[in-house]
Amino acid sequence: MSMRACGNFSAQTQTCYYTPLHRDDAKQAAKDRQFFAFGNAPSDFLRITKTYPGTAQGHFFVTRKPSDASSAPTGMLPTERRAVFSLASIYALRMMGLFMILPVFSLYAETLEGYTPALIGLAIGIYGLTQAALQIPFGMASDHFGRKPVIILGLIVFAIGSVVAATADSMNGVILGRALQGAGAIAAAVMALVADLTREEKRLGAMAIIGMSIGLAFAVSLVLGPLFSNWIGVDGIFWLTAVLALVAIAVLHFVVPNPVRSTLHRDAQTVPAQLKNVVRDPQLLRLDFGIMALHMMLTSTFVVLPLTLRDNAGLAADHHWYVYLPVMVFAMLLMVPFIILAEKKRRMKTVFVASVLALGVGELIFMLGHGSVTGIVLGLFIFFTAFNVLEASLPSLVAKMVSGDNKGTAMGVYSSSQFIGAFFGGVLGGWLYGVSGVEAVFGFCALLAVIWFFVSATMQSPRYLSSHLVRVGPVSDEQARHLVGELTAVTGVAEAVVIAEDGIAYLKVDLHALDREALQVFSVPGDVEAAGQTH
Residue 9 in 3-state DSSP? Predict the structure, then answer.
């Protein structure tokens, strides 16, 4: 009798594959079962399945139920928590560096040599072009050269870009600096490192923490930008972002754990071979257009909004944070019931389409009421409430509409669309401002919201399914096909894709109906779990 080693059984569910030398009949299977009982009662084994009935040697799949399931860790391991929160801080520090100039740059640009409205927009949006072009290549490079070296390289490029912008006295110099900031495109490599350092069943929560850190960084940036501009100037903000990049490198080196190994994670990374299918999916393309339109409106709006607050509403630049702080706080609070209605009450499409319409209403209020603080505050409140709902809902919709094994690729295309939108929003907003004034910029954004409204209205209602990963361990192609049938038989599992070379099952599940205990028996510990027990 030969067997592939399983290691010691623990409180965790364990799975083994073994090959008996004789595969005569059910009697032999019963003998094998007794042989592998290791002194445990036969009831400890949840199943023994012959998965290679037609080969020279039979392969049997055995899973042992843990003797005390309650002793298995249910939350993140200490190593996972340290990895997730430290990487979230790195991501947030970089995003703060990019966003803090958003509410102040249009005012600062007037002091620079070569100032034109069009170049304001280009300087604000140019980071999106270089970010979109380089984030997927950076992620792929991290597969070959290591996650941390690529992230450090990106942060160094970002820091250099910040210094270039800080020392520039012309628009062209700032544009070059902003382009370099975007070229430090670490997003995909950070997500891959998060995946390396978290178990499959905790990865969705880890990505949610990263997403929340980005949203918080954006909200804080809108408030801190005007404050820091008053204290240290916009050139000081660029110097500060360079320092933040160096702090992020220190956090990466001293705080973020080193992964046991780095592998391709289809749920978190772009797989080039999957790009063709993803970009041909009409439902995903609607969402990609949506995030592009959302960030086009954001950057276009902030090309002119600081100027209208100062010149039309009469609010001094160092007091702009008086507007942004309460608006962002109340908009984030009001977002919560809409997200609950969308997710918990399963009214996702209704909330989504209504939020797109609300964006257009906010832009119309800007266009008609930008001459008063009251009009701008009302427009901002409506705009950012809708913006926050959509920013949270769009990635959730992508995850619901794509198969689990294509999720990383779909999110890569989605993220690139976001940054392309930021670029075009800045460029078009600056050009329109120079040609026709602030009303044209707000009118363009309102028109874009109307177009998006009709695009989103034709979107299919999403399936209320979540992505779920299970590490099944090394399996052959035949075993993978067999596992698909077993996994889809579990209550609450709607779809299953088992990639043999990954040893991962990519599932779409209904979290309300999922039989987690039945699903747990398919799971085997991975490297992260082992590492977490030794740290």
Answer: coil
